[in-house]
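Hey, I'm writing a tutorial for new members on how sequence and structure tokens pair up, and I'd like a real worked example in the thread rather than a made-up one. If someone can provide the structure for the chain below, I'll link this post from the tutorial.
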Amino acid sequence: MDFETLAKERYSLRKFDARPVEPEKLELILEAGRNAPTAHNLQPQRIFVIQSPEALEKADSCMFCHFHPPVLLVVAYDPKEAWNREGDGKNHGEIDATIATTQMMLQAADLGLGTTYVGMFDPVKFQETFPEMKDLIPIAVLPLGYPAEGAHPAKLHASRKPLEELVCRL
């Protein structure tokens, strides 16, 4: 699929089939996150793959919306490893991790899988529930899997502001 089609057709999947994600597809998605551009190539993003029923249940308790996918990817960053912009000191870890998240979402769609970017979660609870996240800042949860029968884009998916409202040409 060409990029223009992929970018238009990808949607936030909220209804997942129970079948597992093949390991080779999961690896391609993780590689997309690893290959994402980061400020000064510092690569502060960390990706947690949650698949076991026990871990999925624990992760579910940290989230405010539930989609019950076969895989959850929790994307975080290490603020100590991220680049800080000269002048104002802005830490770019969240930006870097978000770019990695986007690349994984697009790779998943290209492989026939679906995701949705979940920001409604308790980051502190994730850090407490999963000690591996202790010193990291979780920024997104990606439910990942195959679309369930009848899954479709939300009504607002195709609603886009005109380009003229979003772009300022100077």
